[in-house]
Amino acid sequence: MSLNVESPVVSTAPAPQPLRLIDDTGHAVTDNAGDFVLPDPGTLLGLYRQMVVARRFDVQVTALTRQGRLATYPSALGQEACEIAAVASLDPGDWLFPTYRDSIALLTRGVKPEHILASFRGEWHSGYDQYEHRIAPQATPLATQALHAVGLATASKLKQDSTVALTLLGDGATSEGDAHEALNFAAVWQAPVVFVVQNNQFAISVPLDKQMRCRTIADKAIGYGMPGFYVDGNDVAAMYAVTSAAVDRARTGGGPTLVEGLTYRMEAHTNSDDPSRYRAAGDVDVWRRRDPIERLDTYLVSIGALSDQERAGIRDEAEDLAAATRECMMLPVRVDPLELFDHVYADPRAALAEQRAFLAAELAEHAALAGQPPATPSAPTTPSSSTTPAGAHA
User: Fold this and answer.
1) Are residues 178 and 229 in the same domain?
2) Per the record's keyword annotation, is Oxidoreductase included, yes or no (predicted)?
């Protein structure tokens, strides 16, 4: 399926109901699918495996946070369909621009758990090699990564290569000025970028109806002059079909697309949040019955594409990953304060070298007062795109 790329001017409103290909009960849907079709069973089985593994990772990391092994962790439980579909739609050479909540997207794209979690336990900011994985650092400030995605996509267009940028945003991020600037610039310059908004209905504690008056976030695409799609974000088949078409459109010169996935944040915003203060437990129960994994499981079983043996094998893979995650998080954090000065400039500046020497002397003095052997200061390192940062330990 490819989208129309003949005109950059778009005036058609997204459908009034979220587009879906598999409903809550696991049955195929054809009445509001438009021109989109169900992906083949092999593709769906691959998406199922990735969601199961990602869910187990997310649950394990949340448990580690509660045990004090991590400073914080923003769970994406219940949002697996949006994130896995987005990653699966990309080619290896494309770039992903995630937020702080998109750890399972990084996992699915091949980043190791210990490198994903390095920043969440204060070990290293972005503990993975961005160039190796084609993933920008997870952005904590809302919507800033959208501007970065548009910048890279515009450079790709100027260089006339086939790279597409995809950025993940939350509904709260679309209320930021940075999001407006990114969407407007992308549309004006027809940048090859896809905006995937995970509408989990809360910007921390602020519900969507307190953020905006528009019918859907996808409707905003009309004003920018780009296609907008309102999709059932718990239907990985629909999310994959729409996002893949949007990526294909961007790659073939059709410009940007806004995809809104309607989903729900099942866990708290982070471990420091109390969601009972702003939402009812009954609302969460409603969304539990719309679980994206159970929905796809039911469909795959109904068409004979998922056996008990295959399901058990996938669960074993997920448990192995959870065990490996626990093991790497039990290792002590090794932090060298002098790493603050690494990777700041490609060519070290004299003033920074002086500050580094001052801190090294102060650290040596403290070590001497504590009766510890003086540490040998590490030499300033040169940034490398081919190695994992020294602070990201297994």
Assistant:
1) yes
2) yes
